[in-house]
């Protein structure tokens, strides 16, 4: 999974190079948050977990 994440980061970096630094940071942060949520949902579905609580 780390290899996929690194590939995504590189692809994102190449796509946002044309924007200003502030725009790049905002776009990158939004994409990271989106991907984090997608990974969380995927893990929950795969392992049949309802949340990240340590219950």
Automatic annotation (TrEMBL):
Domain of life: Bacteria
Name of the protein in question: Uncharacterized protein
């Amino acid at each position: 999974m780390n290899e996929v994440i690194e590939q995504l980061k590189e692809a994102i970096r190449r796509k946002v190079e044309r924007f200003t630094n502030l725009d790049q940071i905002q776009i990158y942060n939004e994409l990271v948050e989106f991907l984090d949520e997608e990974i969380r949902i995927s893990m929950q579905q795969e392992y049949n977990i309802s949340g990240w609580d340590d219950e």
